[in-house]
Write a structure and sequence with these properties.
single chain, 205 residues, mainly beta, OB fold (Dihydrolipoamide Acetyltransferase, E2P), 3 domains, Elong-fact-P_C, translation elongation factor activity
Length: 205
């Protein structure tokens, strides 16, 4: 079993790496990893690598043993992307059919991820009770239709020819095997933009 690092939050609550988020100086962040020393030590300051839930930026903070953290639990729900207008994202809750409007800057990964949004794409919305939606993120994989393949490339490491294709209205370029044709659907790993294989993923129920 993988050992789970932890440190003490407000009221003696445990703050676990990657599993909880907390308010730190009015910033909503999650713990990525302990840096030094071990968070299990109660005699020395703890340095943690954090992930800002809104901007996606990585930050490093140092905590004294007397510092307290407010541990919070975020609710994760699936929504569908509808459209982007005036820097506002419009999403649909598939269960209630209610529309949710969020600022485009709340997407995890920033502008690079924003360019990958497609009509009907499933996204995960992170919400806090009493506050509402805080951020949203792309799926791990998504299917795109190849729109152009005019960009020839070098031969792949295994001897298979590769080329660059355009997806998402030209906003995304992906290296694919040379046998992939315009009009085909391919599965892409996000947000890296890495080719996974042929096919079209089923939309979530």
């Amino acid at each position: 079993m993988k050992k789970e690092h932890q440190t003490t939050g407000r009221g003696g609550a445990l703050v676990r790496v990657g599993s909880l988020s907390f308010f730190l100086l009015h910033r909503l962040s999650s713990i990525l990893s302990p840096l030094s020393p071990s968070p299990l030590s109660h005699s020395s300051p703890t340095q943690l690598e954090l992930h800002h839930a809104i901007t996606g930026a990585k930050i490093t903070e140092r905590f004294k043993t007397s510092d307290s953290l407010e541990v919070i639990h975020l609710r994760h729900t699936q929504h569908q992307f509808l459209y982007l207008e005036d820097n506002r994202i419009h999403l649909l809750d598939p269960e209630t059919y209610e529309q949710v409007e969020m600022d485009a800057s709340t997407i995890s990964g920033g502008e690079a991820s924003l360019a990958l949004l497609q009509d009907g794409m499933p996204v995960t919305v992170q919400s806090l009770e009493g506050v509402g939606p805080l951020a949203f993120s792309l799926p791990d994989q998504f299917s795109y239709q190849v729109e152009a393949d005019d960009f020839k490339g070098k031969q792949g490491a295994k001897g298979v020819g590769q080329k660059t294709v355009e997806l998402a209205g030209g906003r995304l370029r992906v290296r694919v095997p040379e046998f992939i044709k315009v009009g085909e659907w391919i599965i892409v790993e996000l947000p890296e933009g890495k080719y996974v294989g042929r096919g079209k993923l089923d939309a979530p129920a």
